[in-house]
Amino acid sequence: MKKKIYVLFALLGILSIESCTNLEEVVLDESFTSNLSEKQAADGIMAPVYARLPDIFTHTNYFAIQEISTDEAILPYRGGTDWGDNGIYLALHAHTQTSTDPNLRNTWNLILQGMSRSITAINTLPSSKDPIAKTYLAEARGMRAYYSMLTLDLFGLVFVKNDIGETSSILRGDKAVEYIKSELLAVEPNLETTVGPGRLTKGAVWGLLARLYLNAAVYRDPYATATTFKNEDLDKVIEYTDKIIASGQYQLSRDYFSIFNSDNHTNKELIFAVDQRAELNGHNRLAYFSLSGDQFPLPAYPNANGTDGPGITSDYYRTWVNAYAPQDPTVDPRFYKQNLSIYSNPADSCVAAENFNINRGILRGQQYGLIRKNGVFVKCADGKMKVGKLFYDTRNKPTLAVDFTEKIDYSVEGSNYNTGYRVEKYEFSKKSVSGRNFGEADIVILRLADIYLMRAEAKLRKSNDIASALADVNTVRASRTASTPAPALTAMSLDILYRERGFEFYWEMLRRTDMIRFGKFEDKWTEKTNTDKNKRIFPIPQTAIDGASNIPGYLVQNAGY
Question: Chief subcellular site (predicted)?
Fold first, then answer.
């Protein structure tokens, strides 16, 4: 009698599932795999465990949830119509989102699909005869814990399920924290150390444990008026961050923006990331999302442009201005990197195609770039690419300059196509023929700078160890020696550290979690005046509530929705 195996093979295509709470997978007959070696079969079982990460980390899923809901990013109706989407981005920023928000639903479904595929691998890998199966089993179980961290952080709950055929139990608060902790600790001994950053490693688990312990006080009581951090949790943050730093396996990058380049898979600062190397057909959305529709980063592709998505809020921009006044924020190399010389020398209006690279970081004011007319780029007499002032030709507004303003809000003036300073942190992939696909940059989940800053925070919160915290922060600041590093700080406090995390990790999908932990999420900014603490976690999608309605009391909507 042929046995059945629960597996999704990358070689055969990934089967999508829609079940939200039962986490069911399709059962495939082993005859599909009879011609594969044990190693190939194990690879095929493992690949789907990671396969949903690029989808989770798209611009309208996890990014929108973690950034547009904060004081860092805002996405108004561009020109009164574009990015309308029935007001979901306006609501997300103003904390008036509902359980029918499609971005929340999509993120929920994708995370649970990743969890489901992890369970499939956990149930299947023990029968594999290949030696790699032991490591893969640890990775699959660790990834289930990582997906559980995401649901706990976003929706305040964790699904626990060990077999495809059973109904998940639901954990919240301290039980959820303890479950994730126990899972990560259980798998750490069997993980590799040098296969990252696209796979779960010992270093990645240490980093996730540090992140879990640092946020544990919030996760145990997400609606608390005042968050109480336990010293034993903070000791664990210090322990695991110490292990990562002492390992010598990771290095702070000299060039800040190289962390987000298309070839960043080998960057030593990365600890855990979404593997998006070219052969994996990753996406380019974090690079094009904020750019103007008349910014074209690739001389070879006249259809690869931006989409006039979110800009940074004036509130967030002012944190840079206030920190460095009377100097411009560009004294900090994390703020901006000029690649086009025309910005400082207007005569440099002809650039060889192979040398053309758009600027990085926070883009302000009049933008310059490739001039496109009638679908083709204009060239200089010597054959080089013509570079000049940009206007909104693609929006049929040829007199509106691509001149990014600080003001951005929901008013008519504040929601025009050119409003808001933009962010180009991830490099626009040289192979992104559409502007949307073939992004090669690995998307950062954990990197070494976060390890230093988590350790600094734990020391501040535990014993107000200002000297050690200041040393950790300045270590990160001083490391960016490819240009002049940011000046060393001379004082340290939780407020300064919070500001520093905003400078170091902007656009990296950490802001919402940071704001909640630092007690800033009920503050007012831009168009957001809602101070309801229930908005710290998101509503469970209505589709999930409806799908579980056959089990009375099983899936209860979060408070305030």
Answer: membrane
